[in-house]
Design brief:
- By secondary structure, this protein is of the alpha+beta class.
- The strands form two sheets. A seven-stranded antiparallel sheet has the order 7-6-10-4-5-9-8, with helices on one face.
- The chain is flat.
Amino acid sequence: MEKEKSQSKQLKEKLFMSKKGGMLKVSAEEVANADKFCEGYKTFLDNAKTERDAVKYSVKMAEENGFTEYDCTKTYHAGDKVYVNNRNMALMLAVIGKNGTKNGVRLGIAHIDSPRLDLKPNPLYESNNLALFKTHYYGGIKKYQWTTVPLALHGVVALKNGDVIDVNIGENENDPCFVVTDLLPHLAVEQMSQVMTKAFNGEHLNVLVGSRPFNNDEESENVKLNIMNILFEKYGIVEEDFLSAERHLM
């Protein structure tokens, strides 16, 4: 036999806010639908880590859903779907309405703003027989979270001959990864006694690129030379091309 609720309990149920988590209030079917929706969202996040990546992937999705690139010489009718790619950095999509714009338009606006490490204009240098990239952080990042985690390099490079090439290193299973190094515990006594903002700052976020020299010559910067040679053989990049490049680590 169910015990009769006390007056206090009845009043609490009437007046107090329910503190049950959202997952306890939805059905198994709703949870399954949410998971299904998230799969597409996760795929988008995997393919849209920078502004350029987002535009490229979004154009592909738009065209698969009936959008065509806007042509100012054409006449469009209600229901037509068009897009404008703004220099591969922003994308505008529109569904043509019945009344033009005289009664207003409905806008949905979003932006891609991923925290990341950007490479400085001339980033590659050699120190202590290691090759590293100088970086500058973008966005409100907690700097200590960026050490000793695998990073991928995304970006574009404009070559001297006018070609613009995409660079993507670190996303495929067999790619090398980049990493911001950190001190071993037995070398970090002073570091670990500091507050987070002092122990890790922007100048510490340089990225390890390589440690193998080009050959056994007694030339300086042979590790840096080996990295440049790899970049040249794969992408045709020389050091001067860094000045006309957009490169992001994330």
